[in-house]
Amino acid sequence: MRDDLRKNFASDNVTPACPAVMQAIAEANTGNVPSYGHDDLSLALNQRFGDVFEAEVAVFPVTTGTAANSLALSAMVPPYGSVLCDQSAHINTEEGGAPEFFMQGAKLVGLPSPEGRMDPASLPPTLQLNRSKGVLAPPFTALSLTQATEWGTTYSCETIAALSESAHDHGLTVHMDGARLGNAIAHLECSPADTTWKAGIDVLSFGGTKAGAMAAEAIVFFLNDRTRPMVDTMTRRIKRGGHLWSKQRFLSAQLLALLHDGLWLGNCRHANAMCQRLRHGLYKHPAVNLPFATESNEIFAVLPEAQVKQLHSEGYAFYTYPTPQGVPGQLVRFVTSFYTRPEDVDALLESLIS
Amino acid sequence: MRDDLRKNFASDNVTPACPAVMQAIAEANTGNVPSYGHDDLSLALNQRFGDVFEAEVAVFPVTTGTAANSLALSAMVPPYGSVLCDQSAHINTEEGGAPEFFMQGAKLVGLPSPEGRMDPASLPPTLQLNRSKGVLAPPFTALSLTQATEWGTTYSCETIAALSESAHDHGLTVHMDGARLGNAIAHLECSPADTTWKAGIDVLSFGGTKAGAMAAEAIVFFLNDRTRPMVDTMTRRIKRGGHLWSKQRFLSAQLLALLHDGLWLGNCRHANAMCQRLRHGLYKHPAVNLPFATESNEIFAVLPEAQVKQLHSEGYAFYTYPTPQGVPGQLVRFVTSFYTRPEDVDALLESLIS
Amino acid sequence: MRDDLRKNFASDNVTPACPAVMQAIAEANTGNVPSYGHDDLSLALNQRFGDVFEAEVAVFPVTTGTAANSLALSAMVPPYGSVLCDQSAHINTEEGGAPEFFMQGAKLVGLPSPEGRMDPASLPPTLQLNRSKGVLAPPFTALSLTQATEWGTTYSCETIAALSESAHDHGLTVHMDGARLGNAIAHLECSPADTTWKAGIDVLSFGGTKAGAMAAEAIVFFLNDRTRPMVDTMTRRIKRGGHLWSKQRFLSAQLLALLHDGLWLGNCRHANAMCQRLRHGLYKHPAVNLPFATESNEIFAVLPEAQVKQLHSEGYAFYTYPTPQGVPGQLVRFVTSFYTRPEDVDALLESLIS
Amino acid sequence: MRDDLRKNFASDNVTPACPAVMQAIAEANTGNVPSYGHDDLSLALNQRFGDVFEAEVAVFPVTTGTAANSLALSAMVPPYGSVLCDQSAHINTEEGGAPEFFMQGAKLVGLPSPEGRMDPASLPPTLQLNRSKGVLAPPFTALSLTQATEWGTTYSCETIAALSESAHDHGLTVHMDGARLGNAIAHLECSPADTTWKAGIDVLSFGGTKAGAMAAEAIVFFLNDRTRPMVDTMTRRIKRGGHLWSKQRFLSAQLLALLHDGLWLGNCRHANAMCQRLRHGLYKHPAVNLPFATESNEIFAVLPEAQVKQLHSEGYAFYTYPTPQGVPGQLVRFVTSFYTRPEDVDALLESLIS
Q1: Which of A326, B170, B322, C283 is 20 to 30 Å from B341 by CA-CA measure?
Q2: B-chain residues within 8 Å CB-CB of D244?
Q3: Strand A217-222 relative to strand A203-207: parallel, antiparallel, unpaired?
Q4: Residue A251 belongs to a domain with what CATH number?
């Protein structure tokens, strides 16, 4: 293996697929079976997800997290509506306008969210102002929150419940971008149900790709009076987005494998542990500043510029961010994964210290 | 293997992936590599396609044929424009409105096309009428044709050239839906270049899934003054459609495998041969009517109703179509694939005869 | 007045506004009043339309017929749906793609309609085929018909009722493009209710501009269980389309004036009478062919080419159409209006004969 | 006249049309003339606007400011792009999502703008961050600024030039929402050219309705290499939006009247003077706080709650806004117009003082 293949901390999407997923794909590759989701593997998804989430659910597998988020929101928000989210939300800043495309031009409005978390207290005045504008402002019809957040933190189940309650009180439905849901659950040591529908989440984008799939995410509707009418429209929306795989068995097989016997959460637990190992190392470094809590598999650090250069010169890959004014150094992000080994973390730390 | 797994003639998308594709996916599954198409496999696509098509090309891999067609057209047609296609075109009748979605509401206008082929003579009057309406009618800005057609026939390279010339003369660009391009090439015994850019095609939806991939299609721009400005917008359009795989190596690996050493065309040649075998058998059947030439891997037949019932009762899967008025019997379609064996065809024929 | 101002038979939209409408606009021009439809004139619309149509209605005034049709359909059809209409429908051929734009890419599918009228018998097979395609074809969710039709004919109330019944039976709602509704009513000698909601129409685009307004159309919802949920979304859709006048009193005043004391129908009756006068004259002309019945204020005629040239050279304005193959001469259209005088018709006829 | 008709300070769009506009409409009401903008009045617009703005222009009249802004932006920004504007911009907060609708889902991103004015220094880092995100963030392709601003202030011509230069340097085009452009020009005592194209504006939404029209705005392209390709698409975009009046003479007549002999600027000068009269009165009031400079015809004031109640009880109409935390009282807005008389202002002040 080339040397650089273990030095990429840019994202958890630079990883390969985990062996159990590859095995499941290979096993699915047999015979002619009905297309467009009528195969046995696809038909088993609702039950498998229902078991894991202890709920009645309707599940729609898709290829990318952008598709999962955008298609979910398109069922929750009319074209003339708008979505309340946090300013740093992936849907708002990193998805190339896909949510607006799938929602047919509906608007995303970002709330300030230090550390990636919205404050439940900020919802009522925002919702009231929106209402008071009448026809002049697109009405908020959904709230979207990200678990774990974009800054590597997590919401407590209580905070999610408070946000959801406020949203439901004002007639909004609630979406969770769970691209790193497994990492949040591993950190919180709660059940999948606790941090989702039991905390008021109506629709979940379940992230599989970063947790070890090749390319597999799922839109999960927790069935209730708010979500049932959405479910009926989903296959049409997915087809219309070009996201209905004809050979869907290969998509479903990945999700079934991830959810089998806790593979998914095991992968995420490992990723989190590697991130804590990295944090411990960085923490000891006197010139390194860690602006946020590390509650998933992402860590943000302000490094001296020289250190950043050094790492790049050694072939390390990671993202850099605009550093807040007045802070010396460079804000960077390292992401660990199921595929990260302790020795990969240690090598990175060694390069930093040297 | 379950008995029904060889009795599904509903489509070439009910098939598994072919072994070489599975092998390529497994080989791609190693190490952390850059995401979003910056991996080595993805970077090799332009060259591989360029070699096969003997042209300078820009290639964008996507998951589904619907996505390939819709994204291609979205780069060719402004939202206030329209596309001329044949009445039976997949984009017009079978893609759940995806082309209109990606084109942001641009219109598809279907020309009559007995046997799935548009008549070059029908273009000039249609284009002139459109022009004469001025601002009242969305201007035609692209022509889309399907090779092989929806009725199992193929266009000759000369007819494509005549259609393209007419389109170019009126300022349109030309798109080919090549979901079954390999089958057409195998039938025509021409080169990939002959039936595409040498016949005036500007943009191709290259079909991989039906030819043996798990889920892999490609949007191929044949570089010229008309297509170069489109190319620059494509990655943004693909991301915005939720179609940019983070682990794109797994998508690219499939296409590279298909194009390696003629695997693709070999698969299609086999599928066509199985379809001819089926045709020969059906032809001998006195009560069976074959309305179209069989020039790819699809055959349409009018069967007696009893026969249709019989096949269904034995577990055979195939599509039925509204039968033209006055014709006795039921119009059905059988599709063969790389995965169809001679004995599968023979068993079907035997069931029919008995 | 310039000579050409009476020689324009191109459309009924080349006309000025009728005096009563101008008077109403002038009278509305007093004082500061609430904007965006909260003025007294706008608040009187529902009652006035309700009286004329003998029904409970919700009325939304807009500027153009294209806006009325497109906004109405946008409330009736989801983005992933489609509309069944006649092939020659204005929404399908003359509105620059506006319906697709407002419906966010939903599709229009045109039924054959000799003389502009769909055949109720053609609906059930079309709707069943659509249903059988499942997710592959956008589902028909609305039927749109045009009264009077694009070819100058009208639907009988019975035919409309048969079309509506078939549509309702399949879960579609029914829209009427009534750009020339007054002309149809004047011809049919029925009540406004007879040819609309009593025949099953759910939503009407009421045409005011061609009947004497400056620029005023109305979207009229006949309130029932199908339409009530649509009504709630309309003001937002109108605002989002840039169609909510701040000084809406000036729009509402026009509609109130048209509906006062039968002005609207009187104008249309006059237009129809002028059209019959023209027909009588044309009919006598041996070289003139009249392909359609004349049941409103439009007449289509096949004229010898020399005659067409002659009229153009004298400054007459009218539309020409592609003439069906094999028919000698040129298909043209003449449209009369409330503003056409008998002597204008006679002068035209004289030019033709000479 | 009813008493309340002079007590409405809610907006300058509650006003009637000014007499010269009504006169122009009446004069346009003669004879049949070509529709869809081919009449003589419409054909005179480019010249009239060109004279006033001392530039070569292409002008497209529409009914509402929302339509003008949204259609202008739709020609400047591709569906996958985004617009940089100030946080309080009307397009971002008060147009019901129309810009996103017409831009087909392109995104608006708001910059902080105390007093409604963006800081030229904030552009470069914002534009660089956007660029650095590559395909993940929709690229900024237009800058939109509002003159006069939403908070009653104006940009100096120098600031506009600095903003435009920065935008042009990064490949953006520049749009001005000039719903109250006349008020800004009257305040700045500059020429229409100075604050628009001479300061780098490419496309202007020219506001007529608030300056005395019935319903008339104009999209004005200052012709240059950036704008010429946009111009060609406009009539199609306008038709597709349902905004192409068939009897366009009535729209054009209003604009011609406003631009004749400085009527427009005279109306705005009067409105500004009334606003200054109001400011002088409010300023003297010890309990009234005026947070912003008053540089057009809008004034914002923080009033004691009791005063607000009192005014409402007397029938005064005006908008209230969320008051910044910690500030005692209620933030309100008063808008004056060409129609406001000195005695109307004085009566309002008297009610306040009493």
Answers
A1: B322
A2: 135
A3: antiparallel
A4: 3.40.640.10
Domain of B278 in residue numbering reads as 3-13+263-353
Q: What is the four-CA torsion angle of B190, B191, B195, B201, rounded to 10 degrees?
A: -170
DSSP secondary structure string for all residues of B218-246 = EEEEE-STTTHHHHHHHHHHHHHTT---T
Same domain flag for C224 and C301: no
Between CA D117 and CA D148 the distance in angstroms is 9
Residue C230, helix vs strand vs coil: helix
Flag if C67 and D243 touch (Cβ within 8 Å): yes
CA within 13 Å, CB half, A352: 23
Burial group, residue B250, by CB count within 10 angstroms (0-12, 13-18, 19+)? buried
Cβ A63–B242 below 8 Å, yes or no? yes
Residue B88 sits in the same domain as residue B107: yes
Residues B284, B245 share a domain: no
- Residue B345 is encoded by which pair of tokens? 């065809």
Q: Residues B6-24, buried b or exposed e (16+ Cβ, 10 A)?
A: bbbbbbbbbbbbbebbbeb
pTM exceeding 0.95: yes
- The minimum CA-CA distance between D87 and chain B, rounded to whole Å, is 24
**Residue D219 sits in the same domain as residue D283:** no
For residue C270, give how far its alpha carbon lies from the nearest alpha carbon of chain D (Å). Answer: 16
Distance from CA of C60 to the nearest CA of A (A): 14
Q: Which residue of B has its CA nearest to D136?
A: B239
Angstrom distance (rounded) from CA B88 to CA B151: 8
Judgement on whether residues A83 and A191 belong to the same structural domain of the protein: yes
C chain contacts of residue B108, beta-carbon cutoff 8 Å: 107
Q: Which residues contact C285 (CB under 8 A, 6 or more apart)?
A: C352, C353
Phi/psi of residue A250, nearest 5 degrees: -75, -25
Considering only the beta carbons, identify the residue of B80, B94, B95 that sits closest to C97.
B80
Task: Give the span between the Cα atoms of B295 and B147, in whole angstroms.
Answer: 10
- Which residues of C fall below an 8 Å CB-CB distance to A? 36, 78-80, 104-105, 135-136, 138-139, 233, 235-237, 239-240, 244
Number of CB pairs, chain A paired with chain D, less than 8 A apart: 64
Structure tokens at D286: 């010890």
| Residues B65 and B128 reside in one and the same domain | yes
| Bridge pairing between strands D173-178 and C140-146 | unpaired
CB contact under 8 A, A79 and C79: yes
Give the closest of B94, B105, B125 to C100, CB-based. Answer: B105
Q: What is residue B328's predicted lDDT score, i.e. its pLDDT?
A: 87
C139-168: per-residue pLDDT in tens? 999 999 999 999 999 999 999 999 999 999
Closest partner residue to C33 among D14, D35, D71, by Cβ? Answer: D14
Report yes or no for ipTM above 0.90: yes
User: What is the Cα–Cα distance from C302 to C288, expressed in whole angstroms?
Assistant: 6
**Among the partner residues C13, C102, C251, nearest to D247 by beta-carbon distance:** C13
Residue C163, Cβ density class (10 Å: 0-12 exposed, 13-18 middle, ≥19 buried): buried
Chains touching chain B at 3 or more Cβ pairs under 8 angstroms?
A, C, D
CB contact under 8 A, D16 and C10: no
Structure tokens at A40: 């046995």
Which residues lie across from B317 on neighbouring strands? B8
Q: State whether A240 and A303 are in the same domain.
A: no
Measured in angstroms, the CA of B234 and the nearest CA of chain D are apart by: 10
pLDDT tens digits for range D75-116: 999 999 999 999 999 999 999 999 999 999 999 999 999 899
Segment C103-137, tens digit of pLDDT: 999 999 999 998 999 999 999 999 999 999 999 99
Cα–Cα distance, D99 to D58 (Å, whole number): 21
Q: Which helix (H) or strand (E) holds D302?
A: strand D298-303
Cα(A351)–Cα(B48) distance, rounded to whole angstroms?
A: 38
Give Cα B240 to chain centroid, integer Å: 23
CATH classification of the domain holding B311: 3.90.1150.10
